Amino acid sequence: MVIAGIVAGGTGSRMNKAYHESVHSKDAARGGFPVSQAGNCPKQFMEIGGKAILLHTIEKFLTSPDIDAVVVGVHPNWKKYLEELLDKFQIGESLVSPELNIQSEASDREHALGDDGNRPDVSSQASESKKILAVAAGSDCTNLSALTFAKREILIVTGGGDRTDTLNRIVEAAAVRWQLSDEDIFVTHDAVRPFVTQEIIHENVFAAREYGICGTAIAATDTILHSSDGEFIEDIPLRSEMYQAQTPQSFQYGIYRDVYHGLTQEELASLTDACGMFYRKGCEVYMVPGDVRNFKITYPQDLQLAKALVRRKH
Question: What is the pTM of this model?
Protein backbone atom coordinates (compact mmCIF):
# COMPACT_ATOMS: atom_id res chain seq x y z
CA MET A 1 0.00 0.00 0.00
CA VAL A 2 1.18 3.53 -0.78
CA ILE A 3 -0.06 6.39 1.40
CA ALA A 4 0.44 10.10 0.81
CA GLY A 5 1.04 11.97 4.05
CA ILE A 6 0.47 15.73 3.69
CA VAL A 7 1.88 17.85 6.49
CA ALA A 8 -0.38 20.88 6.95
CA GLY A 9 -0.10 21.64 10.64
CA GLY A 10 1.68 25.01 10.46
CA THR A 11 0.23 28.42 11.29
CA GLY A 12 2.03 30.37 8.55
CA SER A 13 4.18 32.42 10.92
CA ARG A 14 6.73 33.50 8.30
CA MET A 15 4.10 34.45 5.73
CA ASN A 16 2.01 36.34 8.28
CA LYS A 17 5.06 38.13 9.65
CA ALA A 18 5.83 39.34 6.14
CA TYR A 19 2.22 40.45 5.77
CA HIS A 20 2.25 42.47 8.98
CA GLU A 21 5.55 44.07 8.01
CA SER A 22 4.12 45.04 4.62
CA VAL A 23 1.07 46.56 6.31
CA HIS A 24 3.21 48.52 8.73
CA SER A 25 5.26 49.82 5.81
CA LYS A 26 2.02 50.88 4.05
CA ASP A 27 2.92 48.65 1.14
CA ALA A 28 0.58 45.68 1.54
CA ALA A 29 0.03 45.34 -2.18
CA ARG A 30 3.73 44.75 -2.75
CA GLY A 31 3.55 42.14 0.01
CA GLY A 32 1.23 40.19 -2.23
CA PHE A 33 -1.74 39.83 0.10
CA PRO A 34 -5.39 40.67 -0.34
CA VAL A 35 -6.64 41.64 3.12
CA SER A 36 -8.93 38.59 3.25
CA GLN A 37 -6.04 36.17 2.82
CA ALA A 38 -3.50 37.16 5.41
CA GLY A 39 -2.94 38.29 8.95
CA ASN A 40 -3.99 35.11 10.74
CA CYS A 41 -4.47 32.63 7.91
CA PRO A 42 -2.05 29.69 7.59
CA LYS A 43 -0.54 29.81 4.13
CA GLN A 44 -1.90 26.39 3.17
CA PHE A 45 -5.40 27.88 3.35
CA MET A 46 -4.60 30.93 1.25
CA GLU A 47 -6.12 30.73 -2.21
CA ILE A 48 -4.59 30.39 -5.64
CA GLY A 49 -6.92 30.04 -8.59
CA GLY A 50 -9.96 30.34 -6.32
CA LYS A 51 -9.03 27.35 -4.19
CA ALA A 52 -6.96 26.81 -1.04
CA ILE A 53 -3.34 25.81 -1.70
CA LEU A 54 -3.85 22.68 0.39
CA LEU A 55 -6.68 21.48 -1.86
CA HIS A 56 -4.46 21.79 -4.93
CA THR A 57 -1.86 19.66 -3.16
CA ILE A 58 -4.35 17.02 -2.03
CA GLU A 59 -5.71 16.69 -5.55
CA LYS A 60 -2.25 16.02 -6.98
CA PHE A 61 -2.03 12.88 -4.84
CA LEU A 62 -5.64 11.81 -5.28
CA THR A 63 -5.14 11.80 -9.05
CA SER A 64 -1.88 9.85 -8.90
CA PRO A 65 -2.22 6.21 -9.96
CA ASP A 66 0.58 5.36 -7.51
CA ILE A 67 -1.30 6.51 -4.40
CA ASP A 68 -3.86 4.37 -2.56
CA ALA A 69 -4.89 6.79 0.19
CA VAL A 70 -4.18 10.28 1.55
CA VAL A 71 -3.68 11.34 5.18
CA VAL A 72 -3.61 15.06 6.01
CA GLY A 73 -2.24 16.34 9.33
CA VAL A 74 -3.79 19.74 10.03
CA HIS A 75 -3.76 22.29 12.84
CA PRO A 76 -6.64 21.52 15.25
CA ASN A 77 -8.18 24.97 14.89
CA TRP A 78 -8.37 24.57 11.11
CA LYS A 79 -9.52 20.97 10.91
CA LYS A 80 -13.22 21.87 10.73
CA TYR A 81 -12.52 24.40 8.00
CA LEU A 82 -10.66 21.81 5.93
CA GLU A 83 -13.62 19.44 6.23
CA GLU A 84 -15.91 22.22 4.99
CA LEU A 85 -13.62 23.00 2.06
CA LEU A 86 -13.47 19.34 1.02
CA ASP A 87 -17.25 19.25 1.10
CA LYS A 88 -17.62 22.54 -0.76
CA PHE A 89 -15.40 21.35 -3.61
CA GLN A 90 -16.91 17.84 -3.44
CA ILE A 91 -13.63 16.18 -2.56
CA GLY A 92 -14.90 13.23 -0.56
CA GLU A 93 -18.45 11.97 -0.51
CA SER A 94 -18.96 9.43 2.24
CA LEU A 95 -17.78 8.47 5.71
CA VAL A 96 -15.95 5.17 5.48
CA SER A 97 -14.03 4.91 8.73
CA PRO A 98 -15.23 3.53 12.06
CA GLU A 99 -14.00 5.05 15.30
CA LEU A 100 -10.26 4.63 15.59
CA ASN A 101 -8.13 4.54 18.70
CA ILE A 102 -4.65 5.88 18.05
CA GLN A 103 -1.92 5.80 20.67
CA SER A 104 0.49 8.64 19.90
CA GLU A 105 3.79 9.04 21.72
CA ALA A 106 3.91 12.73 20.84
CA SER A 107 2.79 15.18 23.48
CA ASP A 108 -0.04 17.62 22.75
CA ARG A 109 1.08 21.20 22.75
CA GLU A 110 -0.92 24.38 22.73
CA HIS A 111 -1.66 25.84 19.28
CA ALA A 112 -2.33 29.45 18.43
CA LEU A 113 -3.92 31.02 15.35
CA GLY A 114 -2.77 34.58 15.72
CA ASP A 115 -4.31 37.72 17.11
CA ASP A 116 -8.00 36.81 16.90
CA GLY A 117 -7.99 33.12 15.98
CA ASN A 118 -10.65 33.64 13.33
CA ARG A 119 -11.19 31.32 10.39
CA PRO A 120 -13.12 31.98 7.19
CA ASP A 121 -16.67 30.64 7.31
CA VAL A 122 -17.60 28.42 4.40
CA SER A 123 -20.33 26.50 6.20
CA SER A 124 -23.07 28.47 4.42
CA GLN A 125 -21.54 27.49 1.10
CA ALA A 126 -21.17 23.82 1.98
CA SER A 127 -23.72 21.24 0.92
CA GLU A 128 -26.59 20.64 3.35
CA SER A 129 -26.14 16.91 2.70
CA LYS A 130 -22.63 17.03 4.09
CA LYS A 131 -21.28 13.58 4.91
CA ILE A 132 -17.83 14.46 6.27
CA LEU A 133 -17.63 13.59 9.95
CA ALA A 134 -14.96 14.06 12.59
CA VAL A 135 -14.25 10.91 14.60
CA ALA A 136 -12.82 10.95 18.12
CA ALA A 137 -9.68 8.89 18.23
CA GLY A 138 -8.36 8.35 21.73
CA SER A 139 -7.35 10.22 24.84
CA ASP A 140 -4.58 12.18 23.10
CA CYS A 141 -7.23 14.23 21.27
CA THR A 142 -6.07 13.06 17.86
CA ASN A 143 -9.11 13.39 15.61
CA LEU A 144 -9.76 11.83 12.25
CA SER A 145 -12.17 12.33 9.40
CA ALA A 146 -12.41 9.75 6.66
CA LEU A 147 -13.77 10.31 3.18
CA THR A 148 -13.54 8.75 -0.25
CA PHE A 149 -12.46 10.25 -3.56
CA ALA A 150 -12.10 8.19 -6.72
CA LYS A 151 -12.02 5.08 -4.49
CA ARG A 152 -9.20 6.58 -2.42
CA GLU A 153 -9.71 7.39 1.24
CA ILE A 154 -8.72 10.68 2.82
CA LEU A 155 -8.02 10.76 6.55
CA ILE A 156 -7.80 14.11 8.32
CA VAL A 157 -5.61 13.92 11.42
CA THR A 158 -5.21 16.54 14.12
CA GLY A 159 -1.62 17.73 13.88
CA GLY A 160 0.91 17.84 16.67
CA GLY A 161 3.07 20.51 18.24
CA ASP A 162 5.63 20.55 15.41
CA ARG A 163 6.31 18.99 12.02
CA THR A 164 7.85 15.80 13.42
CA ASP A 165 4.93 15.32 15.78
CA THR A 166 2.40 15.88 12.98
CA LEU A 167 4.19 13.46 10.68
CA ASN A 168 4.20 10.78 13.36
CA ARG A 169 0.47 11.23 13.93
CA ILE A 170 -0.07 10.79 10.19
CA VAL A 171 1.93 7.57 10.20
CA GLU A 172 0.28 6.20 13.34
CA ALA A 173 -3.22 7.00 12.05
CA ALA A 174 -2.53 5.17 8.80
CA ALA A 175 -0.99 2.20 10.61
CA VAL A 176 -4.14 1.76 12.69
CA ARG A 177 -6.54 2.37 9.83
CA TRP A 178 -4.97 -0.04 7.35
CA GLN A 179 -2.97 -2.45 9.55
CA LEU A 180 0.19 -1.68 7.61
CA SER A 181 3.01 -4.08 6.88
CA ASP A 182 6.68 -3.10 7.13
CA GLU A 183 6.93 -2.75 3.34
CA ASP A 184 4.03 -0.31 2.95
CA ILE A 185 5.14 3.12 1.76
CA PHE A 186 4.55 6.69 2.87
CA VAL A 187 5.07 9.56 0.43
CA THR A 188 5.17 12.61 2.72
CA HIS A 189 4.78 16.11 1.33
CA ASP A 190 4.57 19.76 2.34
CA ALA A 191 1.03 21.12 2.07
CA VAL A 192 2.38 24.27 0.42
CA ARG A 193 4.11 22.60 -2.53
CA PRO A 194 1.06 22.37 -4.82
CA PHE A 195 3.04 22.03 -8.08
CA VAL A 196 4.54 18.61 -7.37
CA THR A 197 4.49 16.57 -10.57
CA GLN A 198 3.14 13.08 -11.17
CA GLU A 199 6.64 12.05 -12.27
CA ILE A 200 8.14 13.09 -8.93
CA ILE A 201 5.45 11.18 -7.04
CA HIS A 202 6.02 8.09 -9.20
CA GLU A 203 9.81 8.25 -8.78
CA ASN A 204 9.43 8.57 -5.00
CA VAL A 205 7.29 5.44 -4.83
CA PHE A 206 9.74 3.51 -7.00
CA ALA A 207 12.77 4.66 -4.97
CA ALA A 208 11.10 3.91 -1.63
CA ARG A 209 10.41 0.37 -2.80
CA GLU A 210 13.94 -0.04 -4.12
CA TYR A 211 15.99 1.71 -1.42
CA GLY A 212 13.65 1.98 1.58
CA ILE A 213 14.10 5.75 2.03
CA CYS A 214 14.32 8.64 -0.42
CA GLY A 215 14.10 12.41 -0.57
CA THR A 216 13.45 14.80 -3.43
CA ALA A 217 16.20 17.33 -4.27
CA ILE A 218 17.40 19.70 -6.96
CA ALA A 219 20.98 20.71 -7.67
CA ALA A 220 21.96 24.06 -6.17
CA THR A 221 22.26 26.77 -8.81
CA ASP A 222 23.69 29.43 -6.50
CA THR A 223 26.87 29.20 -4.46
CA ILE A 224 26.05 28.18 -0.89
CA LEU A 225 27.71 30.04 1.98
CA HIS A 226 28.11 28.72 5.50
CA SER A 227 27.96 31.18 8.39
CA SER A 228 27.07 30.35 11.98
CA ASP A 229 26.62 33.99 13.02
CA GLY A 230 24.97 35.29 9.85
CA GLU A 231 27.63 37.97 9.43
CA PHE A 232 30.88 36.36 8.30
CA ILE A 233 31.52 33.56 5.82
CA GLU A 234 33.04 30.49 7.46
CA ASP A 235 32.96 28.08 4.56
CA ILE A 236 32.00 27.88 0.87
CA PRO A 237 31.04 24.30 0.01
CA LEU A 238 31.65 23.02 -3.50
CA ARG A 239 28.51 23.97 -5.43
CA SER A 240 28.61 20.89 -7.63
CA GLU A 241 28.09 18.79 -4.51
CA MET A 242 25.26 20.91 -3.06
CA TYR A 243 21.56 20.12 -3.41
CA GLN A 244 18.40 21.79 -2.16
CA ALA A 245 15.89 19.57 -0.42
CA GLN A 246 12.28 19.43 -1.53
CA THR A 247 9.43 17.07 -0.77
CA PRO A 248 8.10 14.40 -1.17
CA GLN A 249 10.24 12.46 1.28
CA SER A 250 9.28 8.80 1.20
CA PHE A 251 9.98 5.69 3.22
CA GLN A 252 8.83 2.23 4.14
CA TYR A 253 6.72 2.04 7.27
CA GLY A 254 8.86 -0.54 9.06
CA ILE A 255 12.03 1.53 8.70
CA TYR A 256 10.28 4.67 9.95
CA ARG A 257 8.78 2.91 12.96
CA ASP A 258 12.09 1.45 14.08
CA VAL A 259 14.04 4.70 13.61
CA TYR A 260 11.41 6.97 15.17
CA HIS A 261 11.07 4.87 18.32
CA GLY A 262 14.85 4.93 18.72
CA LEU A 263 15.04 8.74 18.88
CA THR A 264 15.89 10.60 22.07
CA GLN A 265 13.86 13.61 23.19
CA GLU A 266 16.80 15.83 22.25
CA GLU A 267 16.88 14.37 18.75
CA LEU A 268 13.13 14.75 18.36
CA ALA A 269 13.32 18.41 19.33
CA SER A 270 15.98 19.19 16.73
CA LEU A 271 14.42 17.46 13.72
CA THR A 272 12.97 19.45 10.82
CA ASP A 273 12.14 16.72 8.31
CA ALA A 274 12.01 12.97 7.76
CA CYS A 275 15.22 12.70 5.73
CA GLY A 276 17.12 14.47 8.50
CA MET A 277 15.82 11.92 10.97
CA PHE A 278 16.96 8.97 8.87
CA TYR A 279 20.32 10.52 8.03
CA ARG A 280 21.12 11.26 11.67
CA LYS A 281 20.47 7.64 12.59
CA GLY A 282 22.90 6.38 9.96
CA CYS A 283 20.45 5.38 7.22
CA GLU A 284 21.25 5.83 3.53
CA VAL A 285 18.81 8.22 1.83
CA TYR A 286 18.43 8.03 -1.94
CA MET A 287 17.87 11.31 -3.84
CA VAL A 288 15.04 11.60 -6.37
CA PRO A 289 15.41 14.45 -8.92
CA GLY A 290 13.06 17.31 -8.12
CA ASP A 291 11.80 20.25 -10.14
CA VAL A 292 12.22 24.02 -9.69
CA ARG A 293 8.44 24.34 -10.07
CA ASN A 294 7.98 22.21 -6.99
CA PHE A 295 8.76 25.19 -4.76
CA LYS A 296 7.48 25.82 -1.27
CA ILE A 297 5.11 28.76 -0.82
CA THR A 298 6.68 30.46 2.18
CA TYR A 299 6.84 34.22 1.52
CA PRO A 300 4.61 36.75 -0.28
CA GLN A 301 6.65 36.57 -3.48
CA ASP A 302 6.14 32.79 -3.55
CA LEU A 303 2.39 33.30 -3.30
CA GLN A 304 2.43 35.75 -6.20
CA LEU A 305 4.45 33.33 -8.32
CA ALA A 306 2.03 30.51 -7.52
CA LYS A 307 -0.93 32.65 -8.56
CA ALA A 308 0.81 33.53 -11.81
CA LEU A 309 1.50 29.87 -12.57
CA VAL A 310 -2.15 28.96 -11.99
CA ARG A 311 -3.35 31.80 -14.21
CA ARG A 312 -0.96 30.66 -16.91
CA LYS A 313 -2.35 27.12 -16.81
CA HIS A 314 -5.86 28.45 -17.29
Answer: 0.79
